[in-house]
TrEMBL record:
The chain crosses the membrane at residues 21-42. Pathway: Pyrimidine metabolism; UMP biosynthesis via de novo pathway; orotate from (S)-dihydroorotate (quinone route): step 1/1. It comes from Reichenbachiella agarivorans. This is Dihydroorotate dehydrogenase (quinone). It catalyses: (S)-dihydroorotate + a quinone = orotate + a quinol.
Length: 340
């Protein structure tokens, strides 16, 4: 139904408009008494295949990646579709509108998206209140970042604010230093600033009676030397794991015409073309670390086989974003069945 009816209708609109239309109905469903139940009724059935990680019990290993439900507006709806966990954000301390529009583009031929959203979100205070009101018990991750106006030297303060404010309303955290759409953000992936940032967050985490898993989301564009640094940093700071990978700035694997890609301009590429590189990064991290920390695999998963590729490369769980937009809720069921 999604691919035959809903996707053709939504694809008549520009991607950001289609996103807002979709979320209007998802938010309405969450508000109405039987709305979420109706979503569950019409969604493909996803059987429970529990996975325990970091002391959390996931009903299945398929999560919604950060970036789709930035503002925690439709968690209950996504849970009803069968996701085993939902990651919200990226959340920043202060609300920000993000980069100028247009900033989200479809590459239909490649089953891909290019975005330069720029951490547009309602800010941590509003999102925290929204998280308090959710009804579903689905596991929720909080993806946190820094405001655009915050210099890198003070970035740790932004991450600490988000950590403290969201601590009571999320189950795990993801440190996002890998988006290409906030100027200078990826500089925080270098060894010293990243070690310092994660160490400060872990220091704050240890003050809590119940520590929450802190993961790091990395770019697919890191070199082998940088990936080796990531392994060292994870082992040194004792964070819970890695999410591999975010969007890429590489354009070499596209079949869309170079002129069309060039006309779009800057932004992070997600979707099918990222699959191989993200899988290679997962395999590299898993082998170099001897499997010493869990990896959540994300990037280009538009089929059950591609999800399995990530698991076989060393991922413990996977997340969907662009593949979900192109394939719809049935993709969750197909992946879950493949893992059974």
């Amino acid at each position: 139904m999604y691919k035959s009816i809903f996707r053709p209708l939504l694809f008549q609109f520009n991607p950001e408009k289609a996103h807002h239309i979709t979320f209007f109905f998802l938010k309405l469903a969450c508000f109405l008494p039987f709305g979420v139940a109706i979503i569950k009724l019409f969604s493909p059935k996803v059987s429970s295949q529990p996975k325990e990680l970091w002391g959390l019990k996931f009903p299945n290993i398929i999560g919604l990646a950060a970036g789709l439900d930035k503002n925690a507006e439709a968690i209950d709806a996504f849970a009803a579709m069968g996701f085993g966990f939902v990651e919200i954000g990226t959340v920043t301390p202060k609300p920000q509108s993000g980069n100028p529009k247009p900033r989200l583009f479809r590459l239909k031929q490649d089953e891909a998206l290019i975005n330069r959203m720029g951490f547009n979100n309602d800010g941590v205070d509003v999102i925290k209140e929204r998280l308090k009101r959710r009804k579903s018990s689905v596991i929720v991750g909080g993806n946190i970042g820094k405001n655009k106006i915050t210099p890198n030297e003070e970035a740790v303060n932004d991450y600490l604010i988000c950590f403290k404010e969201l601590y009571s309303v999320v189950d795990y955290f993801v440190v996002n230093v890998s988006s290409p759409n906030t100027p200078g953000l990826r500089e925080l992936q270098e060894k010293k600033p990243l070690t310092d940032l994660l160490s400060r967050l872990m220091e704050e985490n240890r003050k809590k009676k119940l520590q929450k898993p802190i993961l790091l989301k990395i770019a697919p564009d890191l070199t082998d030397v940088q990936l080796n640094d990531i392994v060292d940093i994870v082992n040194e700071t004792k964070i819970a794991g890695v999410i591999a990978t975010n969007t890429t700035i590489d354009r070499t694997s596209l079949t869309t015409s170079p002129s069309e890609v060039e006309s779009i301009g800057n932004g992070g590429l997600s979707g099918a073309p990222v699959h191989q590189r993200s899988t290679d990064v997962i395999r590299f991290l898993h082998e170099k670390s001897n499997g010493s920390f869990p990896i959540i695999g994300v990037g280009g998963i538009n089929s059950a086989q591609r999800a399995l590729d990530k698991i076989e490369a060393g991922a413990s769980m996977i997340q969907l974003y662009s593949g979900f937009i192109y394939e719809g809720p049935r993709l969750i069921q197909k992946i879950n069945n493949k893992m059974g």
